[in-house]
Structures are given as C-alpha cells and as structure tokens.
Amino acid sequence: MSETAGSETAGAPTPVPVRTIISPSRYVQGPGAITRLGEFLAPIGSSPLIVADDIVWGFVGHDVESSLKAAGLPVRKEKFNGIPTAVEIDRLVDVIKETGADVVVAVGGGSTIDAVKASGFLAGIRWVTVPSVASTDAPTSALAVVYTEEGAFEEYRFFPRNPDLVLVDSQLVANAPAAFLAAGVGDALATWLEARATSRSNSNTMAGGLPTLAGTALAQLSWDVLWENALPALDAVRDHLVTPSVEKVIEANTLLSGLGFESGGLAAAHAIHNGLTAAPQAHGLAHGQKVNIGSLTQLILEGAPTSDIRDFIEFTTRVGLPTTLTEIGLSVDDTDVLQLVAREATVPGETIHAMPFEVGAADVVSALKSLERLSRRVRDEAGLAAPELYHAKH
C-alpha cells in the first residue's frame, strides 16, 4: 500500500509477506466500568499518570480518584491541552518523566487518547485508554494521528503494541451528547468499506501486514451491527439510557471498528478525511463527520450500485451525519480548496492507494463535487431533511 504500513528501507531485502492481526491486551465495557479502573490498572502499573481535559475531569474525576485509591494507587492528574500536536506530545513526555509514572492513562476523547499513546511510547512506559465517548476507534489502536496547531492532519505515528487496557463505561458514553455517538458511527461505517477495498487489492494494513480473515470479518461485523442498532441506540442515548442496542453500538464503534480498521485496512475514506483537515472550513467538524464524507466519496469512486449509495445517504442522514459539501462548509465552487483536499488525500503513502484501482486527485475532486446534487436528490426523494450537525474539534 504505502509507507504508512511498514515500508521497506532502500537497499534492504524485500520482507516476506505475512498476514497479521493486532489488538489491545484487554477490553472492558459496561455501565459503571470506570469505578473499577483501579482494579484493572493495578496489574499494569503502580504509578499511573491520568491525562484528561478539564471538562472530562469535571464529571469523571471523583470516580477515577475513588477507584485508584481503593486499589492502593496514587492519583496524579495532568491536563490535556486540546490538540494532539507534536509539541503537546513532547510536553506530556516531560511530565511523565518528572512524575516517574510507569503507566499513562488517557481519559477522554480521541485527541486525548492519541496524545497519550504517543507520549507513553516516547517515554517508554505502558498506556491505557478510557474513552469518555464512543466517537472514534482510537482507543484500541497502536497508532496515533498527530495534527498541526491549526488542526490539520500532520502524520500517523505507529507503535509496536496496542494499549494494555481499554476501559469503556457505557453509562458515561450514554451521558454524553448523542452527536458524539453519531460521529462514532460515521467513523465505524467506513471500516468495512475500507477493509473490503483493502482485501480486494491485497494491500498492507496498519498492522504491518496483509489483512487476515479475522480483521476483515470484524470490519464487516461492525457494519452489520451499526445498520441494525445505530438508530435505536441514538434514541436511547438522547435520554441517557444504556440499552442492549447502545452496548452493541459502543462495541462496534470502539472495539470492532478499531480491530477492523487496523487489521482489515484503511483506503479512500480516511485518506479523504485527512485531506479535509487541510480545509479550514472543516476544522469544526468531528472526525467521524469528515470520515462519512470520505465513505460516500469512496462509494462514488468505486462506482458502487446506485441502490447502495442511496441507502448509505439515507441511513447516515438519519444518523445525523453530513452527506453534502455544504454541510461541511464547502461548495462545488470551492475548486481551489477541493483540489487542495484531493492533493492531500492522494499524496504518496496515503491509504487511498490501497484501493483496488488507481485514484488520482482529479478523481477525488470530481467525486466530491458530485456529492451535492446526488445527496440532495436522494434526501428529497426520501423526504429527509438535512441533519443538524454538532461541531467539535476532531
């Protein structure tokens, strides 16, 4: 596929192709799970450093402190400053070394989690993720997405292992605005589309090898679970309820999508997301909202059956995800910006090159421009109004 998934050094012998799957050491999910964090953390380290922003700490801090104290662990907390930049990551490395922590714990969203994974790796200690929302599949993976100070995609960083523990409190997720869960659905729906493309092209995955049957199957399972459960789960979360559908969607957004994207493969959808981060107009959108535009664009690039594209537009509109350029702050007349997005999405090493056919920047621009009329027509025919979009960082 590219340098992003285990490229070879110039002059070195070509490595023997292998299939591989990677995963976190332990995954824990359930209502009230955060009250047992200390219990699951104690076997991993004796001197944890908790990293969280002030908003998240305001509603989980008491439970985290109580849980750690009950397990005989010290409570040290460091504030996360909002964007996983190289500077913020290096700052956290310094804090880890100053405190003598032997495990760093991310409590929060995908940005906090990526910064913690990167800083834990650089500091040479273990890392744990405790997502406060189910808006991305970052909690389970052995990579981090690093952004510029302006919020544009900068690079992927890959690590030799996944988190030692992923702990998800489903009641905490249900207490958050439903828009976060909807964004996670957008991120997770891409998993099967991209794994399917990677399997067809027999490209390398983020795990550093060819896709396994297991990784691809988990990606498809994530897709199936979401189509069956996303809408009732979102209804329940709007009332802050944890139901079986909510539990299934949390697992699909976090574990199944995480394993599926990493060991099943990424393709056009996430590359287009990365390109969209170069457009200032899209900086206020959540990760999964931009990914949904990428997924729809990938379907168009593939020449997918019209019925499949129509179903995807209708379903993701009902979920509350964008399907037009207008909804992400762009228009078909923003040719210069769309060309920038397309160039960034197709740079050497991007995951779009895992598609089973060649995709150029001009192809991406055409597909993006075609979204507006196509999605509006499909929604008009289905009697669907445009979704009300939540705006957040990453």
UniProtKB/TrEMBL annotation:
- Gene3D superfamilies per UniProt: 3.40.50.1970, Dehydroquinate synthase-like - alpha domain
One MF term from GO for this chain? metal ion binding
Sorted alphabetically, which InterPro entries does this protein's record hold?
ADH_Fe/GldA, ADH_Fe_CS, Glycerol_DH
Q: Which reaction does it catalyse?
A: glycerol + NAD(+) = dihydroxyacetone + NADH + H(+)
Keywords assigned: Metal-binding, NAD, Oxidoreductase, Zinc
Q: Which CDD domains match?
A: GlyDH (cd08170)
Q: Where is the Alcohol dehydrogenase iron-type/glycerol dehydrogenase GldA domain?
A: 24-169
Can the keyword NAD be found in this entry's annotation? Answer: yes
**Metabolic or biological pathway:** Polyol metabolism; glycerol fermentation; glycerone phosphate from glycerol (oxidative route): step 1/2
Q: Cite the EC number.
A: 1.1.1.6
Q: Does this UniProt record's set of keywords contain Cell division? A: no
Instruction: State the superkingdom.
Output: Bacteria
Give binding positions for NAD(+). 53, 110-114, 141, 143, 147
Give one Pfam hit by family name.
Answer: Fe-ADH
* Residues engaged in binding glycerol: 137, 187, 270, 287
Query: What is the required cofactor set for this protein?
Result: Zn(2+)
Per UniProt, the cofactor note for this protein states: Binds 1 zinc ion per subunit.
The entry sums up its family as follows:
Belongs to the iron-containing alcohol dehydrogenase family.
Q: Spell out the protein name for this chain.
A: Glycerol dehydrogenase
Organism encoding this protein: Subtercola boreus
